[in-house]
Amino acid sequence: MKLISFPLVLLISFLALNFVYAQDDSPEPNYEMTTYYMAFLKKGPNWSPEVTEETKKVQAAHLANIEKLVEEGKMILAGPFLDEWEVRGIFVYKVDSMEEAIALTEQDPAVIAGRLTLEVHPWYSAKGITIINNEDE
């Protein structure tokens, strides 16, 4: 029995896969893309893991600000990272410009207090992305 060479097997596999995908009549994805703005919230000059009355107040105001921006439709996602590194969390904004995203982030009470600093980047993704609230998880 003669063995088939590896390059020949690769060629046959490629042609077979190409044929299978060429026969796929499923419709193209139907979505538009848009620009969002992602803010990486980093440890600021006044960041500390210590919990004090002052840090509790700043955190409460930080969370209230997030809630307000979500209600206004300007923020679609926010949350902290659970591991210990320089980046503490993210915000994802759906606003008209980088300048607006930066201005909104600079108004956050934790940024004003110096507990966090920011780095904002434009992010391209599917228009209308949302987080599905699945309470069973």
Description:
- The chain is α+β, with helices and mostly antiparallel strands and 137 residues long.
- The chain has a domain at 33-126: Dimeric alpha+beta barrel (Alpha-Beta Plaits).
- The protein is built from 4 helices and 4 strands, in the order αβαββααβ.
- It has helices at residues 6-22, 53-71, 98-106, 109-112; strands spanning 33-43, 75-80, 87-93, 116-126.
- Strands 2-3-1-4 form a 4-stranded antiparallel beta sheet.
- A hairpin with a 6-residue loop joins β2 and β3 (87-93).
- The longest helix has 19 residues, at 53-71.
Strand share of the residues?
25-35%
Let me know the largest β-sheet.
Answer: 4 strands, antiparallel
CATH topology name of the domain at 33-126, in short, is Alpha-Beta Plaits
Any idea what the radius of gyration is? 23 Å
The CATH class of the domain at 33-126 is Alpha Beta
Note the gap between the termini: 55 Å
What level of helicity do the residues show? 25-40%
SSE sequence, one letter per element: HEHEEHHE
- Give the total of beta strands: 4
Tally of DSSP helical segments: 4
- Spatially, the strands of the biggest sheet line up as 2-3-1-4
CATH superfamily of the domain at 33-126: Dimeric alpha+beta barrel
**Which term fits the overall shape?**
elongated
| Sequence stretches where pLDDT stays below 50 over 5 or more residues | 1-6, 19-23
The CATH architecture assignment of the domain at 33-126 turns out to be 2-Layer Sandwich
